[in-house]
Amino acid sequence: MGPEILRDISFQIPKGSFQFLSGPSGAGKTTLLRLLFLALAPTRGLITVFGKDRTLIKRNELPYLRRKIGVVFQDFRLLDHMTTYENVALPMRVRGRDESSYRNDVVELLKWVGLGERINVLPPVLSGGEKQRAAIARALIEQPEILLADEPTGNVDPTLARRLLRLFIELNRSGTAVVIATHDLQLMDQVDARRMVLAEGRLTLHD
Amino acid sequence: MTDAAAASGPHTPKDGTLRRRTPIVPQRSVAGRALIIVIAIMTFLSCLTLGAVTLVRDTAAVWQTQIAREATIQIKPDDGFDIEQALVEARDVAAGFAGVRYATIVDREATARLLEPWLGAGLNIDDLPVPRLVIVTIDESAPPDFAAMRSSLEAAVENVSLDDHRNWVDRLITMARTTVTIGLAVLVLMLSATIMTVVFATRGAMAGNEPVIEVLHFVGAESGFIAAEFRRHFLWIGLKGAAIGGLAAIIVFVAFAWWSSMNLATPEADQATALFGNFAIGATGYAGVLIVLVIVAGLTAATSHATVVARLNQIEIGRTDHA
Fold first, then answer.
1. Is A188 on the interface with B (CB under 8 A)?
2. A99 in B contact zone (CB under 8 Å)
3. Are residues A199 and A157 part of one domain?
4. Structural domain total, chain A
5. What residues of chain B have any CB closer than 8 angstroms to a CB in chain A?
6. Which of B221, B10, B26 is nearest to A96 (CA)?
């Protein structure tokens, strides 16, 4: 067993809430997000996701729960052989949905994030900011109940960071709970939202 | 959505042509092409080995039956001994036995021809004490009692001996069995090498697809869906590679058979035919190629499936995670 990364942590993410998760590099932000995303199981402790005890969730139920959670990875995780449109539409495609049922939604969403002109472009051609927005669009396409974003403004300039933040706020207004992991203080100062600060494996809440 | 947006839909580039839907598993990767080549080479070598083993097995069977089909009665000449009379008596005694199809005396001319390579042409056989032969052709399915035949011949004819070729047959059977066993051992080694190469090459090709597995997993794809996508893709790769290798092996078989039939009258072909029959790979060889092809393609698909499942298990238990 490796070192203990998180300990004595207790918090709740209410429906429709907006919060920042911050702390120095290596504090465990990504690990906490992975726990929330059900990509990791805690070595001990209790995590309740959508009212269900994490340890009691069967493996075959996990994909259905994950569909309620949108994730924006720090490294985007776009598939290079697929166009921007196909990457964003991927969550729908893996559910076996007919393309005609989601095509318009994907195009609309891509326009909303400012990628209307980059629909048929492959990710290696996109800039860092465009990749970031494509990754955000993919996380939003299914209108998740909660959005987890890991350093979503880490690769973009301050102007684009503000645009992305506005995008998250808009999403939050439509009812999605948002958790943004960042150590960008300027970004956090722009919104009056709860701050969850991780340091040395412990969490402090600033409501 | 506006009409303009609908007109320039996601799969409709600006030139108006429809874009084909991209498969979830990347189709044209260097690793994929290398895997096809590796599979083709290994399938080709396996099929050649299989063909060679079936050829040796069939030839060994022919050797055995040909030599076991005949026995030889030898009568030595002696002073005042009517060898022609003895030959007729020996032939009649042998032909009377159950299990003997017929017995033929090797006449004076034929005997002289047999000795011609050593003693030259124009040989007067009466000048030399040359033993004479009776060839007994045997029903292989119900051979005669050679001990009884030998006793009867010795009772009826002087200076007679019966050679049932048993020593040769025993040696040939041993040699044929050894040859086939060695061939089978080589085939097992070859198939094992093919299996391992295909498994490792497939796993190597799968390594480049780990990000795809992870992304599919994190966008909520079920394990069965991910595994099926990769299984289908790698089954196709396996089929393509194995078909190329199998087809190349069949071309080699056909070319050998053709070469063999085209050179029937030449001394080289006679030598080869004496050893290997007519160089034709039988139906077993071709069926073997088909079986190897199915095994290799199935193995490729199964390996990709197992790799996906193992990777998903790793992700699920967070073994590869680091903070």
1. no
2. yes
3. yes
4. 2
5. 1, 5-6, 9-11, 13, 19, 21-22, 24, 26-27, 211-212, 214-216, 218-223, 225, 315-318, 321-323
6. B221
- Name the residue among B22, B212, B220 with its Cβ closest to that of A66: B220
Which CATH number is A204's domain given? 3.40.50.300
User: Number of A:B CB contacts under 8 A?
Assistant: 95
Residue with tokens 């048929």: A120
Per-residue pLDDT tens for B129-161? 888 999 999 887 888 888 899 999 999 888 899
Token output for A52: 């269900």
CA–CA separation, A43 vs B243, rounded Å? 49
How far B221 CA lies from chain A's nearest CA (Å)? 5
Residue in chain B closest to A77 (alpha carbons) equals B215
- Same domain membership, residue A149 and residue A92: no
pLDDT tens, position by position, B234-273? 999 999 999 999 999 999 988 888 887 777 666 666 666 6
Co-location of A28 and A83 in the same domain: no
The answer to whether residue A191 is domain-embedded is yes
CA distances for B39 relative to A35, A69, B32, B253, B300, angstroms: 41, 41, 10, 19, 9
- Whether residue A25 is contained in a domain is answered as yes
A39-56 pLDDT, tens digit each: 888 888 898 988 888 888
Q: How many CA atoms lie within 13 A of B42 on its CB side?
A: 30
B272-303: per-residue pLDDT in tens?
A: 666 656 666 778 888 888 999 999 999 889 99
pLDDT at B80 over 50: yes
> Is residue A130 in some structural domain?
yes
Single residue among A104, A119, A143 that ends a domain in this structure: A143
Interchain contact A40–B (C-beta under 8 A): yes
pLDDT at residue B11 above 50? no
Q: What is the ipTM of this complex?
A: 0.85
Q: Which residues in chain B touch residue A81, judged by CB atoms under 8 angstroms apart?
A: 22, 26-27
- Whether residues A94 and A153 share a domain: the answer is no
Cβ burial, residue B269 (10 Å; 0-12/13-18/19+): middle
Residue A74 lies in a domain: no
The distance from CA A69 to its chain's CA centroid, rounded to whole angstroms, is: 8
- pTM (predicted TM-score): 0.71
Listing DSSP states for B81-140 in one string gives --HHHHHHHHHHHHHTSTTEEEEEE--HHHHHHHHHHHH-SS--GGGTT--EEEEEEE-T
In this structure, the answer to whether residues A84 and A126 fall within a common structural domain is: yes
Low-confidence ranges of chain A (pLDDT < 50): none
